[in-house]
Amino acid sequence: MISVRPASIADADLLLEWANDPTTREAGFHHGEIDPPTHRRWLEARLASPESRVYVGLEDGTPIGQVRLEAGPDGRVEVGISLAPKARGRGVGRALLRAGLAAGAADAALGAGVFTARIRPANAASIALFSNLGFVMTGTEVVEGLEALVYELPAG
Fold first, then answer.
1. How far is CA 50 from CA 22, 46, 68, 71, 72, in A?
2. Separation CA 94–CA 132 (nearest Å)
3. pTM given for the model
4. Distance of alpha carbon 41 from alpha carbon 89, whole angstroms
5. DSSP secondary structure string, 55-67?
6. 96: domain range?
């Protein structure tokens, strides 16, 4: 069974390990490796922000990935997901994303009206994952100088 729990600063090393995985770096908008102090500052800021949620995904109690939600204007909530390398290819991404979205939709303080994902065009796995959960491509944007496909799903 897949569930999510709120991340804490105690998860910093695990989240950094996943973030610096070469497959994760290649799929994202920032390709360089993240150093521990920078990551810790980022995580502390996300945990302290009323607009952010970081969830650790669990499969029968074992961490398998993370889902990040960032509330923006007009009820739009940006969604990011990454899987631990050992969890990839086992079909757990869909359940993890579904659990993260459910947690975000149930969090009234986030004010989620629409979930938004920005995905690099070459990231076929993420395109399939978000599409399979009902996200629809609504356009393109440039993120950090790279093309991004924008996918959206009404919350709730």
1. 30, 8, 13, 9, 11
2. 8
3. 0.93
4. 31
5. EEEEETTEEEEEE
6. 2-154
Measured at the CA of 140, the angle between CA 138 and CA 142, to 5 degrees, comes to 150
Lowest mean pLDDT segment, chosen from 3-12, 26-35, 36-45, 142-151: 26-35
Residue pair 116/78 in contact by the 8 Å Cβ criterion: yes
Report the CATH number that the domain containing residue 22 is assigned in CATH. 3.40.630.30
CA distances to 77, 79, 121, 134 from 114, rounded to whole Å, are 6, 10, 21, 12
Q: What percent of the chain has pLDDT over 90?
A: 83
Q: H or E element: which one contains 151?
A: strand 146-154
**Tens of pLDDT, residues 110-129:** 999 999 999 999 999 999 99
Q: How many domains does the chain have?
A: 1
